[in-house]
Specification:
Layout (H helix, E strand, L loop, with lengths): L15 H5 L4 E5 L5 H14 L4 E5 L9 H16 L5 E5 L16 H21 L4 E5 L2 H5 L5 H9 L6 E5 L5 H6 L2 E4 L20
Parallel strand pairs: 1-5, 1-6, 2-3, 2-4, 4-5
């Protein structure tokens, strides 16, 4: 798309303004670093224009943290107390979804699979109710890859979501069906990484 000029304009009867305001389903995949970072950057833009933001992290361990989590909690507080930006929610599978009866100390793949299904069921309910305007489903490709969730069912829900709800999904090995359904797909390709030469992850870079 050189100089912002589209290579193809669909004959869909929509005006340029209407086409610009369509909700986006984005996928950040690939082996390179930066998939979640890019998604959180998009969420920051969404927050800045007042969109209601919800992050759902599909990770096994409650101890797994990213720096953006603390920052977004502060942004959510800023919205609640001063009306600046948008509302923010942050949920982590490894900590036990807040809507389940009890938090799991998941140790087996079966436990993790059930927890992932609980999380996706809640997201599907929120999409149907148009509860948020911007969703980050972080590391969500893994429950799909491992067969914990049915890819076709997930794609059907995402494509049928009502209203104006953006969804960004991150993780390696995004399934072809999801890539086909998405409006925006970016593959992060690793060229070099400090860990390749034995350097450890460091605060402020990896988390």
């Amino acid at each position: 798309m050189p100089q912002g000029n589209p290579t193809y304009i669909p004959d869909d009867g929509l005006t340029t303004r209407a086409r610009r305001n369509q909700p986006v389903l984005a996928v950040h995949t690939g082996d390179g670093k930066g998939k979640s970072t890019a998604a959180f950057g998009m969420a920051l833009r969404a927050w800045n224009v007042g969109l209601d933001v919800a992050v759902f992290q599909f990770v096994k361990s409650a101890k797994w943290k990213v720096g953006e989590e603390a920052a977004f909690h502060q942004l959510g507080r800023l919205h609640d107390e001063q009306g600046i930006g948008g509302a923010v929610e942050w949920h982590k599978m490894g900590a036990g979804w807040s809507w389940t009866r009890q938090s799991r100390k998941a140790g087996s793949d079966l436990d993790h699979a059930v927890a992932a299904a609980d999380g996706w069921a809640e997201i599907a309910r929120r999409l149907a109710a148009q509860h948020h305007q911007f969703y980050v489903l972080d590391e969500f490709t893994y429950p799909l890859k491992w067969g914990w969730l049915d890819v076709d069912d997930v794609v059907e829900v995402l494509l049928a979501r009502p209203g104006h709800q953006h969804v960004v999904i991150t993780g390696r090995d995004a399934p072809p069906r999801l890539i086909e359904a998405a409006d925006l797909v970016t593959e992060m390709t690793k060229v070099k990484h400090p860990m390749d030469v034995g350097r450890k992850g460091q605060q402020g870079i990896e988390w």
